[in-house]
Design a protein that fits this description.
- This protein is of the alpha+beta class and about 60 residues long.
- About 50% of the residues lie in helices and about 15% in strands.
- It is built from two helices and two strands; from the N terminus they run αββα.
- A two-stranded antiparallel sheet has the order 1-2.
- The chain is flat and about 45 Å long.
- The chain starts with a helix and ends in an 11-residue tail after the last helix.
- The mean pLDDT is about 90.
Length: about 60
């Protein structure tokens, strides 16, 4: 693979499918994921973590 635009498009599609599969697995398992950037003191919660805490996906106490 040489880094062509076709390859980039294929990789983006693969990433999108992977993200969908991860979200579905987290929903089924009723477990989520989160990330915390210690240096920036910022975090991110997956939609399933929001659901576990009864929050809408755009709500978060994690900033």
């Amino acid at each position: 693979m040489t880094g062509s635009s076709d390859e980039l498009e294929w990789l983006r599609a693969q990433l999108g499918r992977s993200e969908v599969r991860l979200a579905e697995a987290q929903r089924i398992a009723q477990g989520g994921s989160w990330e915390w950037d210690v240096e920036a003191d910022r975090g991110w919660w997956s939609p399933e973590v929001h659901s576990i805490f009864g929050l809408a996906p755009d709500e978060s106490t994690f900033t």
